[in-house]
Amino acid sequence: MSKYSYIINSGWWCGEKTPENEKRVEYGSSEIRGVAFFREWYESVNKHTSPAKIIVVDSASPTIPELPDDDRMEFVSTDVNGGHSTSHIGKYAGCTRCFFIGLAYTYASEADYWVYVEQDALLFGKGIVEHAIDNMTSDFMFGDRGNTPQPLQQSMMIIRKAAIPGFINAYARIKATDEVITPEMKFAIASTKVAQWLPERLFYQRDYSTFKNKLINKLQYWLFKYGKGYDVFPFGFGRAKPVNFNDKYGYFQHGDEEELQKYRETVNKDVS
């Protein structure tokens, strides 16, 4: 039994590219986008974590996974497919809608933490969530940016329950759509008070080839390096590569064929 009470939240979408989401860039093995991969995701969560509930938010996908016989599992479908953050309907992409639903569920529950694990992310190291919470010094813990272009990574995240209302309010106050300011950037802003006082335009996505925009990008970098209001995980890797499967704890997203094979060898080794 875990010494912490937490809800694990994830999203679900499985389908072919359409004109509405044609801007979506796909990384890693095609296997991670298939319906059968859901079972491996679930086994990864079940083996390495101890959640009170597992909340999967489906973005009106045409393909639904076979759900495990687990009383903790709740599968919720939205009325529309919000779309990818690069091409979505309304103000928010499907991922943001998923975050809001999971955060609200956690706040209405008796759990103390919201833990997000992306649908194509796999974990290794039993007690990984507990280890992360042990190292939290703030209300938020996100993935370190590593060698990615965003200020943080979202394939695994933790937010303390008491901070959820303020966080959602700060996020909702951002007027720009997810296509203009990325969800990763909005998470960084909503968890960093000083960033909330700055003009939104500072955080717009832009072409960083010009000197002015390079300077703005550098300002963003220093702001979230030294002024951020969140912790980063005491382990890798998310989308940052390479993944070291010899580490005690870790997680990875967008796994390619070689990484999936190494992961499976590691998990099977742990079992034997």
TrEMBL record:
Domain of life per record: Bacteria
The protein's name: Glycosyltransferase
Source organism of the structure: Kushneria pakistanensis
Phylogenetic placement of the source organism: Bacteria, Pseudomonadati, Pseudomonadota, Gammaproteobacteria, Oceanospirillales
